[in-house]
Amino acid sequence: MPRPLLACLVLLTLLLGGAAALRHAMTGPGQEAVAPASGSARAPARAAEVGPRGDFLGVIIPSASVEIVSRTEGQVEAIEVQVGARVQAGAPLVRLDLHPLRKELAIAQAALQTARAQEQLAQVALSEARDRTQRYAHPKLVSLQAMPEEEIAAAGFQEKSAAAKLQSAQAQVQEQVARVEQIQQRISDAVIKAPFDGVIAERYLDPGAQTSPSRPILRLLGAGGLRVRFAIPEDEPRGVAPGAPIQVRLPREGPPLTGRVENVAPEVDSASRMIIALARLDVPPGADVPAGLVVRVRLGPPGERAALAAPETP
């Protein structure tokens, strides 16, 4: 082998050996180069972000909630309850000022009396017109041709005219009766009552404020139990069906609440890519579970799975 070629081979061998030694020195004994993570290797990290499978974030909501509004426009005279007060169905909550309505009712009642008087006059006129027609059409007078045909025809016309006036007067009476009943209903609606048992959650207006059907006065939460609304990722709907048992961990120490799923949305929400479910809770008597709490929901009855993790602070 020629000397120049042999010298090149020796130099290349020395260079490769030096690179291997340098790499060993940098990595240290017992260490190997780490291969790039694959998609399957990243899956545990994503699972840790979203929490254990079967645990869903939810919020406590009341069984019913309604904005208390007035059916008619008016001024608030008094509000009979305070925020936090428990009320029963039919209890008065708000009273409106009745003075304008009472004046309007007095005017309507006077108009009704006038309409009824006009109806009585029309009835008398019709009775007289009928008597006249009957006299002119008496068989003896007709056989003797004692009454001219023009007068007989005029008497018939007067009877028809009196009947039409009576119908008009009766219609006026019905109109005024309806107006009086409408005002009386507005007076009755001026005392706003609770539609169901519940707790006053918010108060929007004070006495003296002007109200209308589009302006709420109070907010009433139902006292018929609590529910939890929770969101299920679109790829984890397994086992979530009406009637399925659930556990709900509150953001405090203590055993979880139990309940059952009532309904599940039939479609995925396009914005959040979640399926919304609603479940009724079995709340022990005397338990303080305010609406609006963020909780963690898990499928299954108590003891079937491991303890629930505490809800994350939003």
UniProtKB/TrEMBL annotation:
Record's keyword terms, sorted: Signal
Keyword Metal-binding: no
Signal peptide: 1-25
GO MF annotations, alphabetized: efflux transmembrane transporter activity
Keyword Signal set for record: yes
Gene Ontology CC terms, in alphabetical order: efflux pump complex
Protein origin, superkingdom: Bacteria
Family: Belongs to the membrane fusion protein (MFP) (TC 8.A.1) family.
Protein name per UniProt: Uncharacterized protein
Gene source species: Cystobacter fuscus (strain ATCC 25194 / DSM 2262 / NBRC 100088 / M29)
